[in-house]
Design a protein that fits this description.
Elements lengths: L2 H20 L5 H17 L10 H34 L4 H13 L2 H12 L2 H8 L3 H20 L1
Helix pairs in contact: 1-2, 1-3, 2-3, 3-4, 5-7, 6-7
């Protein structure tokens, strides 16, 4: 698929992919970000598109695979953060509850920033998400500050 054909598909079906993702329970802003990632992956892997399904269906499948992968990673990291918090400070049930409360009170953006901080460097995140490096650092800092504020409230 050449660049013009791909661009036409993108323009025609971007909102469709976003709506499919939103139907799975994500906020529109998060769905748009995930859709962008899916379209980027589709561009990179466009040679693998076999044509057995509609192109928008193929991109939706990529988006759903990314969504499920993200959800698994978030779940595993929440468990790791809970375990780390408990081991680092207090290994009692009250600490686990507090850690869960902190995570649940953070916005998705803050929670994702904390998770990314445990996985990759700010520079890697900047490249992968196409965000300014300073923005990544500020988001991580604000997420940590929000978690501390919740913990000490």
């Amino acid at each position: 698929m050449d660049e013009k054909s791909f661009e036409a598909q993108y323009v025609e079906h971007f909102d469709y992919v976003v709506r499919v993702i939103v139907s799975k329970g994500l906020k529109r802003e998060d769905a748009e970000e995930l859709s962008q990632r899916a379209w980027l992956q589709a561009w990179r892997k466009r040679d693998l598109f076999s044509g057995r399904a509609a192109f928008k269906t193929w991109v939706c499948k990529i988006a759903m695979n990314m969504l499920f992968s993200d959800l698994r990673r978030v779940h595993l990291h929440q468990q790791a953060l809970l375990a780390t918090y408990s081991a680092s400070y207090r290994a009692d049930q009250e600490s686990l509850v507090l850690a869960h409360q902190i995570l649940s009170k953070l916005s998705d953006k803050q929670r994702n920033a904390l998770i990314a901080a445990t996985e990759i460097t700010p520079k890697q995140e900047s490249v992968e998400t196409n965000r300014n490096l300073q923005t990544v650092r500020v988001n991580r800092f604000r997420a940590r500050q929000a978690a501390i504020k919740i913990a000490t409230a």
